[in-house]
């Protein structure tokens, strides 16, 4: 381990926990998103109080982080749909559109309707 890390302090925090064994990535994304929005300009982990609603067990409901899956899924579908309309408007024939849909389905695993 690099000597740079020998002087780091460990600050244990009680934070909202996932309720299953598969939402850890969604929780990490939610922690980061909320931290970037809510962290004070001069943040110090040593000044966190029990009365603060920031970085404590009641910071957010676990279901909020789990909903990230649905939001990410919607975003992916919107991106795919936008890409489809870009390509279809540029396509010169129905054959080109069919090739795009077939290729897109193969690459992403997402079926177009």
SSE inventory with pairings:
Elements lengths: L23 H15 L23 H5 L1 H23 L3 H15 L5
Pfam families: Peptidase_C48
Keywords: Hydrolase, Protease
Family: Belongs to the peptidase C48 family.
Written overview of the protein:
Keywords: Hydrolase, Protease. GO terms for molecular function: cysteine-type peptidase activity. This is Ubiquitin-like protease family profile domain-containing protein. Helices cover 51% and strands 0% of the residues. It has helices spanning 24-38, 62-66, 68-90, 94-108. The protein has 113 residues and is mainly α. The protein starts with 23 loop residues before the first helix and ends in a 5-residue tail after the last helix.
Any descriptors?
113 residues; mainly alpha; 4 helices; elongated
Short description:
The protein is mainly α. It has four helices and no strands. The protein is elongated, with a radius of gyration of 22 Å.
Radius of gyration: 22 Å
Question: Helix count?
Answer: 4
Extended strand count: 0
Overall shape = elongated
Integer tally of domains: 2
The description of the largest β-sheet is: none
Tell me the distance between the termini: 52 Å
Structural class call reads: mainly alpha
Mean pLDDT comes to 79
Low-confidence stretches: none
Fraction in helix: 40-55%
- Strand proportion: under 5%
Name the helix and strand elements from N-terminus to C-terminus, one letter apiece: HHHH
